[in-house]
Design goal:
- This is Transposase.
- One of its GO terms (biological process) is DNA recombination.
- Keywords: DNA recombination, DNA-binding, Plasmid, Transposition.
- This protein is α/β, with parallel strands linked by helices.
- The chain folds into two domains: about 80 residues, no CATH class; about 110 residues, 2-Layer Sandwich (Nucleotidyltransferase, domain 5).
- It is about 50% helix and about 15% strand.
- The protein has nine helices and five strands, in the order H-H-H-E-E-E-H-E-H-E-H-H-H-H.
- A five-stranded mixed sheet has the order 3-2-1-4-5, sandwiched between helices.
- Helix 2 crosses helix 3, helix 3 crosses helix 8 and helix 4 crosses helix 5.
Length: about 230
């Protein structure tokens, strides 16, 4: 594992503190002010606005260096969408996770129709580089129409009870939405989820690893990887 080349030039706080603040904010359901308070308890005096700027600047930089899960033709894509209110208007967060609960991609759109579903599938194919074994969705007909255009040879199962994995993936974001008292812009939501989901992908163990020792080992390895990527090794 190689060290990060992220530059912390002109920042008076060391990389370890910046990386920890960003980790706390994106990993746990904490507000910026609560992260500020947790750092203060350790004798680190930094404003929540500074933490916000760190999250915006370094969060995206960290994500670019985090390794992605290697795609496989045996993968099963679970697709779902959830409504998010921004400025009093409804928007839809379209998300795809695989059989392990790993977030593959997500996109905020103003539509909940075939065009929006097709955009998600096209993005997924481009990012993954290959088609899955199967896609699983709820009964929204837009998925079937989009699938026929984008990947006609892929099996499609449409059933409310089969798609709990995708629906469950919305829960952590809902907790953050309440803590943050909503999102102020589409761009802000898209930037946040790109970092939030990548950090969650790294630290949350796959669904098949249920034993406590396996989960502990996964978290230890994830933390070591995070420190290497952020150049925050003590």
């Amino acid at each position: 594992m190689t060290s990060s080349t992220i530059s912390y030039k002109n920042h008076r706080f060391p990389p370890q503190i910046i990386a920890r603040a960003v980790w706390l904010y994106f990993r746990f359901p904490l507000s910026l002010r609560l992260v500020e308070e947790m750092l203060l308890e350790r004798g680190i005096v930094v404003s929540y606005e500074t933490i916000r700027r760190w999250g915006r600047k370094f969060g995206a930089a960290y994500v670019k260096q985090l390794p992605r899960k290697k795609p496989s033709r045996k993968d099963i894509w679970h697709l779902d969408e959830v409504v998010i209110s921004i400025g009093g208007r409804k928007h839809w967060l379209w998300r795809a996770v695989d059989q392990d609960g790993y977030v593959l991609d997500e996109i905020v759109q103003t539509r909940r129709d075939t065009k929006a579903a097709k955009r998600l599938l096209v993005r997924l194919l481009k990012k993954q580089g290959l088609s899955p074994k199967r896609i699983v969705t709820e009964k929204l007909r837009s998925y079937g129409a989009a699938k026929r255009d984008v990947m006609p040879g892929v099996e499609h199962r449409s059933h409310k009870g089969l798609n709990n994995r995708a629906e469950n993936s919305h829960v952590p974001l809902r907790k953050r939405e309440r803590m943050m008292q909503g999102f102020r812009s589409v761009g802000g939501l898209q930037r946040f989820i790109s970092v939030f989901s990548a950090v969650r992908n790294l630290f949350v163990a796959p669904h098949q690893r249920h034993s406590a020792p396996a989960i502990h080992i996964h978290r230890i390895r994830a933390m070591a990887q995070w420190k290497a990527v952020t150049a925050a090794i003590a």
